[in-house]
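Hey, resending since the last one bounced:
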Amino acid sequence: MGRTKDQIPEAKLTSSTKQGATPTLLSGGNPQIPKGVGDAPVQAWIAAAPGWKGDLAVRIDAIIAEMVPDAEKAVKWNSPFYGVEQGRWFASLHCYTKFLRVTFFDGSALNPPPKKTSKYERVRYHDIPEGGLDEAQFADWIAQAAALPGEKL
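The structure tokens again:
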């Protein structure tokens, strides 16, 4: 897909990333994007995500928009969050070296639940390697997750 730093909204860049510099990539390639509410900080994170992870994040964001047209969005802790009510979140994204992780905050209630468990009983992870997105299953999980109350964070 080939996103460029020009696609990162200027207002959402940190002082270290202004004047044409690329946002800092943290461990695993996760972009360091200032926290913020709304689509703009999420799109800045997606634009800064490296290579195939950014391209995958574009597709994930599109599926969420399709399944939950009025989804609330924010960036917290350098990760995009998605919810149906501001302050209550059903999923988030995070880059790791070999995969993009989707966290479902009430993932144990999904049918079938994502396989990777957390130290928190209700949380489930879905790690997506390059080329590994099952769009039908993912869209189904998003629809189910959006119907749940969400996690207040």
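The beta strands are 36-37, 72-76, 79-85, 88-95, 100-104, 116-117, 124-128, 151-152.

Sorry for the duplicate.
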